[in-house]
Amino acid sequence: MREMSREGGESGPRSGRIGIGLELDAVHFKILDVLRENGRISVAALAERVGISRANAYTRFEALRADGTIKRFTAEIDHVRAGLGITALIFVTVRQQMWRQFRAELARMPEVEYCAITTGQHDAMIQIRVSDVAEVHAMVTERLAGIPAVKATETVFILDEVLKRPYVLPSDHPRQQRRPAPDPSPADVPLGKMRFVGAAEGRAALRKE
Amino acid sequence: MREMSREGGESGPRSGRIGIGLELDAVHFKILDVLRENGRISVAALAERVGISRANAYTRFEALRADGTIKRFTAEIDHVRAGLGITALIFVTVRQQMWRQFRAELARMPEVEYCAITTGQHDAMIQIRVSDVAEVHAMVTERLAGIPAVKATETVFILDEVLKRPYVLPSDHPRQQRRPAPDPSPADVPLGKMRFVGAAEGRAALRKE
DNA sequence: GTTGAAATTAGTACGAA
DNA sequence: TTCGTACTAATTTCAAC
């Protein structure tokens, strides 16, 4: 394969990791950083860009894969060119103790690209891609409304996707130097219009029903 | 590169395309389908899985890339293992005619993975990845609140990401056979709890300020 | 963790169907 | 357009340092 990538952003990485698994160092993050922009780069070229030997690159690459830190490689496609120009978000209120059914039905809906369980007034948010607005309506009224687990929905359309990073890395963050004390006097920042919405009642342990 | 993928879902593709660009046929969709699961597959292996010659596979692969249908290749990583276990959605109300500033500020926030302009009561939704909940608070109160373009925010946490497909293809959809007339009698589907929220006033032409 | 050299595989360029 | 083959170049593997 040919090398065809452009240089990624330089950044000051930090070691970051949770629980079991590989202890990621700065080199690992650099590898992920390169792979984020060019998932098809050869390991040889990757080694060169990261500044390590090929053997080392192969070892680390394989370790990241085996460890699960790299879940898979994929192509990013242009939805519009592929014929799915309409994107919508559907906020769903799910009936208690019917999450299992809801999840099962979700798996059967190919137009759903993303689904997350959230805190706040709704229980889940799903993102769908379809070819026209009528399909959004059909999706909500014919398919979602037909699921007993679904109590109510609220749909908004996405007019534009301003920013879409493949993923965020800790090494992107410039100021990780943990502020010593969360200074309670944020100068003249006007708070008050900033709401944080916690989970609705009785939904604390529903994450993995 | 070694072949290491598993079989993707068989599906009945349809031709789908918008405006200028490649006219995508069933073979193109099959290619995208394979690439979605394994973005690092060699073109030779891709050709074999799609059932075309290597030369043809190279031609189509390159065409999809040149056309922009394939935007880039990337690795999908495990956020938790990478040290960014907290995901939150921030719904932002943006002050009219300050979108440009809002966009500019966004680009300077590395923890933002996704930002979309939406219809509904808010103007934009941003998704962030950070290492702990305190950072969410800091992000909202220290950074977002400091942007004049930001009128108000509402934050929810993501408790679990139930489903995440690399992307959706038209060829995934089983029943594309356009219903002849959108039958206005959807049997006994209980509507009424299904809301569609349009754009707020005066925000029609703001997509690309 | 690094380098170099062998074996394999990938990418390109043709002519033919 | 697509296919099949041969040619060239690059990548991965492996062994020694």
Write a brief caption for the model.
The structure is a homodimer of 209-residue chains. By secondary structure, chain A is an alpha+beta fold. Chain A has six helices and six strands; from the N terminus they run αααβαβαββαββ.
Unreliable spans of chain A: 1-18, 177-181, 204-209
In CATH, what is the homologous superfamily of the domain at 86-157 in chain A? Answer: Lrp/AsnC effector binding domain/regulation of amino acid metabolism (RAM) domain
- Class inferred from helices and paired strands of chain A: alpha+beta
Report the biggest beta sheet of chain A as strand number plus sense, adding barrel if it closes: 4 strands, antiparallel
Give the H and E element order of chain A.
HHHEHEHEEHEE
Largest interface: A-B, 105 and 106 residues
> Number of DSSP strands of chain A?
6
Walk across the major sheet of chain A and give the strand order. Answer: 3-4-2-5
Question: Which percent range describes the beta-strand content of chain A?
Answer: 15-25%
Instruction: Specify the oligomeric state.
Output: homodimer
Using the CA coordinates, give the radius of gyration of chain A. 22 Å
CATH class membership of the domain at 86-157 in chain A:
Alpha Beta
Overall helicity of chain A: 25-40%
Summed up, the helix count of chain A is 6
Overall average pLDDT of chain A: 85
Stated plainly, the CATH topology of the domain at 86-157 in chain A is called Alpha-Beta Plaits
The shape of chain A is elongated
Q: N- to C-terminal separation of chain A?
A: 44 Å
